[in-house]
Specification:
- There is one protein chain.
- By secondary structure, this protein is an all-alpha fold.
- The protein has one domain.
- The protein is built from 6 helices and no strands.
- α2 runs antiparallel to α3, α3 runs antiparallel to α4 and α4 packs antiparallel against α5.
- The longest helix has 27 residues.
- It starts with 6 loop residues before the first helix and ends with a helix.
Amino acid sequence: MPPGFNLPFVLSVAGGFLTSAVVAVTYVWPAIRAMPRDNALRLLAAFHAFRFLGMNFMVAGFVSPQLSTDFASEVGWGDLVAAVLALLAMAALSWRWAIAIPIVWVFNIWGTLDLLNAYYNGVKIGDPGLFGAGIYIPALYVPLLLVSHVMVFMILLKTKSTEQAA
């Protein structure tokens, strides 16, 4: 196995993805699909408004002092930007701004790339124990977030004719 490979952590993350996907397909997607597009997008964006939690990676004692401060800052600030973009998307959808859907696209692309970047750079750290109390973020919260990003993309990519036929 590669150096830094931690089977229990990998299985935990895989379990997070599997469970998130099963719950989404079984319970969330059928309900979301039945909603008007803007309401569904607003609900999914609301979940991402809590991404300010990533700022905790920069709090002393939350993570190991050996965790790279560059990594912690990147995760923290990236998540804060995603949270602000989610709130902006919610507002734009609620107030029916003409640019609401482009804002949702920006939020969803930024949020997805930010999470994938955090996983990519997190793997290079090698020791998930350095995440300290933050271990639950990549193991539980990020899989939920990524699955919801996929649902947002599915809604955004649905054509008007498909939407009207449903």
